[in-house]
Design brief:
single chain; alpha+beta; 4 strands; about 15% helix
């Protein structure tokens, strides 16, 4: 399996997809750092929350992940979709 990962810099913005087990209320989006949206899970992914959003750097991403942990949501996937390519 050939996987091509985007080049990452921990100090630059990037877009992520986060899948978590459980239901994340849309009213909780304000507590997350960055700009996030909840996407509809497929029938196979029922009972999960899928968040797609951008953060300014990986420190902000860790804040988002800690927030989800604090809500008791188990992480299933954290995927970088698009990275800022500036050096």
């Amino acid at each position: 399996m050939d996987t091509s990962w985007p080049p990452l810099n921990p100090d630059h913005p990037a877009q992520y997809r986060i899948c978590a087990q459980g239901v994340f209320s849309p009213t909780w989006l304000d507590m997350l750092s960055g700009e996030w949206a909840i996407t509809e899970p497929s029938p196979v992914e029922a009972g999960t929350t899928i968040l797609v959003g951008c953060v300014v750097d990986q420190a902000a991403l860790l804040g988002v992940l800690n927030g989800l942990y604090g809500l008791g949501l188990c992480l299933l996937l954290v995927e970088c979709l698009k990275a800022d390519r500036s050096s």
